[in-house]
Amino acid sequence: MVTKIFEDIKKTLTGIDVSEASYGQRGYHLAVETPKGSLAGVAEFFERRSFYLADLCCVDYVDYLELVYFFNHHKTLCRVKVALKVEPEKPVAPTISHIYTMAHWYEREIHEFFGVYFEGHPNLTYLFLHDGIDHYPLRKQPTPVPEEDKKLLNSFRPEGEEDTFFVNLGPQHPSTHGVLRVVLKMDGEYILSAEPVLGYLHRMHEKMAENRSYVQFLPNPARIDYPGALLVNLVHVMTVEKLCGIEVPERAQYIRTITCELNRIASHLLWFGAFPADLGALTPFLYAFDDREHILDILEAITGSRLTYCYFRFGGLYNDIDDTFIEMTKRFVKRMRERFDIYERLVTGNVIFVNRAKDTGILEQGVVHKYGCSGPVIRSTGIPFDIRKTEPYAAYDKVDFEIPTGTLGDNMDRYNVRMTEMEMSLRIIEQAIAKLPSGPFKAEKVPKKLKPPKGDMYHAAESSRGEVGVYIVSDESDTPYRMRWRVPSFSNLMTFPALAQGTLIADAIATLGSYDIVVPEIDR
Amino acid sequence: MTETINNIADVIGWEAIRTVVGLVGVLVVVVLNALILTWAERKVSGHIQRRIGPKEVGPFGLLQPIADTVKLLAKELLTPQNVERPLYYLAPVIIFIPVLVSFVVIPFDARLQVKDINVGILVILAFSSLSVLSILIAGWGSNNKYSLIGSVRSIAQNIAYEIPLLLSLLSVVLMTNSLSLRDIVEAQKGGGWYVFFQPVAFLVFFIAGVAETNRTPFDLPEAESELVAGFHTEYSGMRFALFFLAEYTNVFILCAMTTTFFLGGYHGPFLPGIIWFFAKTYLLVFVILWFRWTFPRVRFDQLLNFSWKLLIPVSFLNLIITGGLLKL
């Protein structure tokens, strides 16, 4: 696949620079450098081949700004980095939002953090920030925001639509799972258009990363995605390890797998409680939390915390697991198997539930690559895309598990995919415990002050919501030059306006619930 | 004492005294029922959800509703800005009137009924559909979009479910040839409960009744995951409590009606009639609570389809069959 794309790019696209990169060191197979004029051509080239836009970010190298586009394919692994250099003074770049829908938000994000103007973008307004900022926050040199740009707030009630019925769903609303706000333009109970308004939980983790050393940033990922704290903790740790070339002992890899899967079940259980609650059934919530409590007890015993874990260290773990942990985990696996029967009777088999979830919020397989969704959302459409399989990390290549997929991409499919995933996680835990090797749980001679060699690295892992990726640019200092977080909820939520359009408000809320969004992760 | 009462009765008439005493009795039942139901709802939901429920205030948490009432009474009555003040104030009061009137005709025991009106069914149905008026007033007067959607939903829902409710009752009326509630109960004497003769009508009536009282799975006017709290989003303190009081009383009335029409009312062996009546009623109340804590909510179009496409044709068919069989 990689060589074929490599040849294809050389053949069809002229005037661009393409080279093969070391996947092990960089995290991508091909590096493409394109001038501004060819960017749309490059994007179209990948769109035609059903590549999805994994990430779009910007790095400020002071002399120039570099826009970095990451493409990947859902079925065969081929990560491509496309770089575009723009001038630091009044930076202008062409938009690709007409080719990739997801670029809408990424470009708005870059515009407000770096001041890059995207020509042809239909709505280049603020995505996260309020109107009071004076300087572009992620620029290395202080760059003031021009006066006329400070007014670029998203207008809630457009002129000439004073008589239209708008409903502000959120930021305080029981079903937005946090402080997400969705502006709904309604016709009675029907939604004419839905627009998410983000930024109510924005804390700028990416800027924080630039101001602290790699070790100091360790607790932060848990605050980005709190229900799946270990899973994001892991991707940060792995990226830095790969960047520094640290080898992780076998035992640590297995323990990482076990704890991550426990955390994945806990995260899915949280969703399992919340989703029927969005449909009006409040009781499953209590059942799910009852089971989740057992996982929290297990993880508390080894990590010391119950929600925002910081257990993984560069080169291994914070401490080793003991027999009690294994005993507790085995007991939990046994218990959880029985609980699935109760869930089946209480929720899955409920006629009202099935009627509500079936045939609502249908996401079509043909368009998912334009959004870059991942995780259970994309698997529900029938694409078996799971980074644990395509780019195995930790000990996932040594255990046997299947990727559940749906067929239609509706809310019921997303529900079924997650329920099967929990069972798969139990299977992974059992196998990993059976195969658990003895040995050290920590790599030796990991320096206290990490100074990775110059270069960049993109590394992705499968969190409970989908592909969570970290892109680190290192300048040989002990703090990252730039750390970019690619979060799954962000790109999954982008499909919401399209899915909500024309549906009833109750269906839109069911769809939002089926995504399992985490607002701190979206806003970062 | 007796003389004084006789003297008063001479002036204003026995009927008036009976009505006053009856209304006071009704108020007592309403308040007691609401207290019991708030406790029962929390206890039932607790046990369904593998919790214990309230247990701190009084034995088994029995005094919890009283503590809640004190809290609600002590709360400041907030009036949000931009509400339609007369309507906003009026709605919680209006919702209570139809509820009280419906109680008048319910026979709690053979000799315990405020007034037996010969068109009792009509009185109950007419007044119970009035409660939707106050929901509309509350939703409109609150000047809140969620409230408005909730109240509009409520109206569509009430119109749709009033019809099967009435149609299913008509088959009972056909069997007794009377609209008086006491006659209907008396016709079921000796175990000839209408639930055995009219099982379809019973089911239709109970389902439509649950929808009329806005309980899960038909709680669309206050769907908290969609509309925050629906028509009473902007209400707090005692005004909010009045809405809840009315809801619990409506639940009680629905179950009392079902008992009267289908479960033989106060008839039953050994025990006094009033105990039978309340036992049957609270059994049905428990079923409604059970619904609430196990079912998700139906969608709006499903709700209307269910009534117009299933309940109404079925109850029509049932009515025709009943009429035909009675003629034979």
UniProtKB/TrEMBL annotation, chain B:
It catalyses: a quinone + NADH + 5 H(+)(in) = a quinol + NAD(+) + 4 H(+)(out). It is found in: Cell membrane; Membrane. Signal peptide: none annotated. GO terms for cellular component: plasma membrane. Its EC number is 7.1.1.-. It is a multi-pass membrane protein. Keywords: Cell membrane, Membrane, NAD, Oxidoreductase, Quinone, Translocase, Transmembrane, Transmembrane helix, Ubiquinone. One of its GO terms (biological process) is aerobic respiration. Pfam families: NADHdh. GO terms for molecular function: NADH dehydrogenase activity; oxidoreductase activity, acting on NAD(P)H, quinone or similar compound as acceptor; quinone binding. The keyword Cell membrane applies. It comes from the Bacteria. PROSITE patterns: COMPLEX1_ND1_2. The keyword Cell wall biogenesis/degradation does not apply. Its main location: membrane. The chain crosses the membrane at residues 20-40, 87-108, 120-138, 159-179, 191-211, 240-264, 270-291, 303-326. Belongs to the complex I subunit 1 family. HAMAP family: NDH1_NuoH. NDH-1 is composed of 14 different subunits. Subunits NuoA, H, J, K, L, M, N constitute the membrane sector of the complex. NDH-1 shuttles electrons from NADH, via FMN and iron-sulfur (Fe-S) centers, to quinones in the respiratory chain. The immediate electron acceptor for the enzyme in this species is believed to be ubiquinone. Couples the redox reaction to proton translocation (for every two electrons transferred, four hydrogen ions are translocated across the cytoplasmic membrane), and thus conserves the redox energy in a proton gradient. This subunit may bind ubiquinone. This is NADH-quinone oxidoreductase subunit H.
